[in-house]
Design a protein that fits this description.
mainly alpha, 0% strand, 6 helices, 67% helix
Length: 115
């Protein structure tokens, strides 16, 4: 992981999720932290602003950790997209990705009410 890219993504992650630096686990996924569709769009927008590369919503949903997004941004900055990563989400439209997020949020809500 590039220190500069990882550090910038950590800062973005902290802003989007409103957490302290000590609370950031670079391997914790977007879903594990309780990410919402609004936060996914914030991440996508802030990554594009910071690095000039687009990270599609499906990638945020499937690779959404600081470590995973760092790898995706570094690959994009290196001149090409990560073929394996893009192939894994290639067939998903943004609507399908949002549907997956909504299903996850519903499961997470159900899990919280079960405990």
């Amino acid at each position: 992981m590039s220190t500069d890219v990882g550090a910038e993504l950590t800062a973005i992650w902290r802003q989007v999720f409103d957490i302290a630096e000590a609370e950031v686990d670079p391997a914790e996924s977007f879903f594990e932290i309780g990410g919402t569709s609004f936060q996914a769009v914030q991440l996508m927008t802030r990554i594009e602003q910071a690095f000039g590369v687009k990270v599609p919503l499906p990638v945020i949903f499937t690779e959404g950790s600081v470590d995973g997004l760092t790898a995706a941004v570094e690959e994009a900055l290196g001149g090409g997209a990560d073929d394996d990563l893009l192939a894994s989400v290639e067939g998903l439209s943004e609507e399908e990705a949002l549907r997956l997020l909504q299903e996850h949020e519903a499961r997470a809500t159900a899990d919280r009410t079960d405990t």
